[in-house]
What we know:
The protein is 82% helix and 0% strand. By secondary structure, it is mainly alpha-helical.
Amino acid sequence: MNTILAFVIEVVITFTICALTFRYIRPFLKRILVDLCGTEERAQFWTVFSNILLVGLPLLISLMYQPKAVNAEELFFELTRRTSGNLFGFMFALIGVGFIVSFFALFAPRPKESK
């Protein structure tokens, strides 16, 4: 396996996992954001912002990969280490978004429900 192919595989794996995971959580996040923001437009902005953060940060990290291995076995394990590091970046971003949404969910003023 050559180093260019390893680079492409690492970027594609990172992008695919992050995009699929965000696609899964997007409807839930959007409902929470509509509730917190009050309007659909505001929630849409924060959903797009979260999308950029959750997919863009790991993708940016993955673009910094420069393979140094000389044989296929070393390249494979270097590829797995880099991919796991990229997914750590995704989890870091996801936890960050979760903390921010949780903070505002706890402290945002809510309209009083009339019975």
